[in-house]
Amino acid sequence: MAVFFVLAVCALVSVALVSYVHYASRQRRKGQAGYGHEQEVLKLPPGSMGWPYLGETLQLYSQDPNVFFASKQKRYGEIFKTHILGCPCVMLASPEAARFVLVKQANLFKPTYPRSKERMIGPSALFFHQGDYHLRIRKLVQGALGPDAMRALLPDVEAAVQSTLASWDGRVTSTFHAMKKLSFDVGIVTIFGGHLDERRKAELRMNYSIVEKGYNSFPNSLPGTLYYKAIQARRRLHGVLCEIMQERRARCEPGTDLLGCLMQAQGDDGAPLLTDEQVADNIIGVLFAAQDTTASVLTWIVKYLHDQPKLLEAVRAEHAAIRETNDGGRLPLTWAQTRSMVLTHRVILESLRMASIISFTFREAVADVEYKGFLIPKGWKVMPLFRNIHHNPDYFPDPQKFDPSRFKVAPRPNTFMPFGNGVHACPGNELAKLEMLVLIHHLVTGYRWEVVGSSDEVEYSPFPVPKHGLPVKLWREKNTMNFKSCETGNVEDIIV
Ligand code: HEM
Ligand SMILES: *[C@@H]1O[C@H](CO)[C@@H](O)[C@H](O)[C@H]1NC(C)=O
Q1: Does residue 293's CB lie within 6 angstroms of at least one atom of ligand 1?
Q2: Which pTM value belongs to this model?
Q3: What is the residue with the minimal CA distance to atom 2 of ligand 1?
Q4: 82 and 202, same structural domain?
Q5: Residue nearest to atom 10 of ligand 2 (CA)
Q6: How far apart are CA 443 and CA 244, in angstroms?
Q7: CB–CB of 43/18 below 8 Å?
Q8: Which ligand is nearest to the CA of 281?
């Protein structure tokens, strides 16, 4: 999640002032004869802080971020300091260090996001919080995204996948664009159940897309700017959500979907646990966390399968067998079938590793913390570098090779964290994987596709995706008949 915020983290704060304050406090700490009960001088991790004020921001942006992190790691090892966008930070490139921050000492490191982003998503959304409030909401969200919920959701996921593919049939479309619509639709059924009327859905979709456009823009509240428009659209989203909640209450049908779970939650005294405002913030937060992440990984999967015809044939064989059992695709996929897709599951894990779309996350030290004899000063950011760990040959030999068979053996503990780790790990991971399994099933059994143009460059959206979102021409395979042909949704495709 936090990677959404990386480009803007601290961009707002007065860079010069903050740098100076941190610089001064660092000097002070250096001068201290020890801290707490330990009477030894802890040193800061190795690394360079770059130029005054600017830190190493320019270096980070003038080169591929992966190269920046990797060369630092090579030079300084698993933990090193740097200074980007006005924030001193410690980067952590080892499984142990990531575990220390995200799991073992998670209470010493709080989530950290710029105010402007918090305001856009909603300050009560769970990922901004730590402690009791976070835990309570997290339990509710996990409940609504748990195994039973996933089983019940399968038919809706399958319908959404089929509709996405049907509206793509015979056209060239940006894969990322199509996948965004898919993950949005799945997010909507997860949150509202299958019964949200089309008008409401369209209102949510349109307003949400305005929020998104403003999200990564400079937070300038003057009328006319993207940020301003996004804040306005966010207000309308909130209004729509409150209307939906009021209607549910009037009908005395809160529902068993995520919205229902949040609305019905009660505190120990039996009173509602959350205000409508808090529910709305969390709903918008989940939509946000669910969409671009899942869509980026789905896009990479389409590319990886396309680029490896032999692998694609093997995956196709796995799914052809299932389709056969399902009377040539006339019967819906069963939950048990989704659990039986062994090769496909490995392809998904390897795609998550290769793409590592959440390259790192952010936390902030709430106190001076010692790690392996180094000081992580209070107020500094820490960044567990997931991608570096996923691409370290010590844990994943020949890391640039796409090789699903490496997942025949479980990865070493804490070396594979596509969904994070610890108290803030992704509660949507099963849903994301279900979408991937179902998409792959219908894609490889019903369709053929080819990539249009070169797809080897990467762009950041803000997650890495292939250039132009991977334009793909897709067509229905002649000799398989798709009996469950379904409504063609109105995709506003990018026709290339
Ligand atoms: C492939 C798709 C996805 C990936 C790679 C992914 C990855 C992640 C990661 C790495 C985190 C932890 C961030 C951190 O520790 O700072 C996270 C958190 C979160 N994700 Fe996902 N996610 C995906 C899909 C989803 C979906 C589909 C949903 C919801 C339906 C979702 C909801 C959330 C929420 C609510 C959090 C915050 C949890 C907390 O703070 O306790 N994610 N995700
Ligand atoms: C946003 O939501 C409002 C309802 O509050 C609705 O009237 C409007 O059509 C929606 N769409 C856009 C693009 O603003």
Answers
A1: yes
A2: 0.89
A3: 294
A4: no
A5: 203
A6: 34
A7: no
A8: 1
